[in-house]
Amino acid sequence: MSKELLKVEHLKQYFPVSAGFGKVMPLKAVDDVSFSIGEGETLGLVGESGCGKTTVGRTLLQLYTPTAGRITFDGDVLFDSGEEYDGDGKLILDAHGKPVQGKKVHVNMLPYRKKMQMVFQDPYSSLDPRMTIEDIIGEPLDVHHLYSNKKERREKILELMELVGLNSEHATRYAHEFSGGQRQRIGIARALAVDPKFIVCDEPVSALDVSIQAQVINMFEELQEKLGVAYLFIAHDLLVVHHISKRIAVMYLGRLVEIADADELNENPMHPYTQSLLSAVPVPDPRKARERQRIVLTGDVPSPLKMPTGCPFRTRCRYATEQCAEQCPQLTDRGHGHHVACWNK
Q: Residues with Cβ < 8 Å from 152, sequence gap 6 or more?
């Protein structure tokens, strides 16, 4: 087990939404999420659209200020709302029913931007169309003063371009002159410019052609071997996530429902939602595909503004019981680091 680099405890991200007549309701985009990532490790984060995957990534980097929870990076506490929890992960309340408050921490993130970076989903909107590729990649070097003269700046930029498979003559061109795959390489080079320890990869291949996806995924793996960088790899495609990740976390309606080793999760999914997701993954063998049983979920995804009581998945679960409606299950270890949030599995 590698040394722990990032630890997230009881992370919450609520957004205020107007409900009319001056009322404001909290939209629970991320609700009580906990996980850790080791040095040089890749944790895959999967789930359907709107479940809160991207919000988790942006909140870790504090592009959104967290509502509650605790974020620790490389031994330093970056954010702590001060709420305290017991050994079972339940919030400790005082005599008046309010959360017991400890010491609050919220540090200036600028020094940590060199250690924590992000590769955005859309390579067409994440690059400034008025800047040359040299200036896009060089901007982090300018912000953090990572060169002593223009010659050194130019050399660093060309090294980064070579690292991600771009030619030096591309430096004076603009983003619109490149394909989607090349633009994503530019975004990756920009993220690597400050030599980070951790990168949030927010669906970095979802906007690319299938033929290009494999090239970019392989490049991420090669960069990890060379630089030892850790990834939070957010994606929809379970085959892609299984290929690149050491562990996989499954998210549903703002909460984590299962975390396990990538091979273990694919061979032995325990949560009903994970089972349904894996049953929908295409199989290249026609015979096996015909023998497979597709698990189709019934009902619609509940609104995060009107969350069901208890387990958020119970309204679509074929195993739901009265206990599921009364209490929300916490992630519990079922052996070999396989954590599941389910009363019936």
A: none
Q: Torsion angle of alpha carbons 145, 150, 154, 157, nearest 10°?
A: 10
Condensed to tens digits (0 to 9), the pLDDT of residues 57-77 reads 999 999 999 999 999 999 999
**CA gyration radius for the chain?**
21
Read off the pTM: 0.91
Measured between alpha carbons, how far is residue 148 from residues 2, 151, 229 in Å?
35, 8, 25
Query: Quick check: 273 and 313 in contact, CB under 8 A?
Result: yes
The residues with which 42 forms a beta bridge, in sequence order, are 231
Q: Give me 186's structure tokens.
A: 């530019």
Please give the share of the chain, as a percent, with pLDDT higher than 90: 62
Q: How far apart are CA 241 and CA 343, in angstroms?
A: 27
Which of 221, 237, 196 is CA-nearest to residue 60? 196
- Render 278-309 in DSSP notation, one character per residue: HHTS--S-HHHHHH----PPPSPPPPTTSPPS
Torsion, Cα of 30, 33, 37, 41 (10° steps): -60
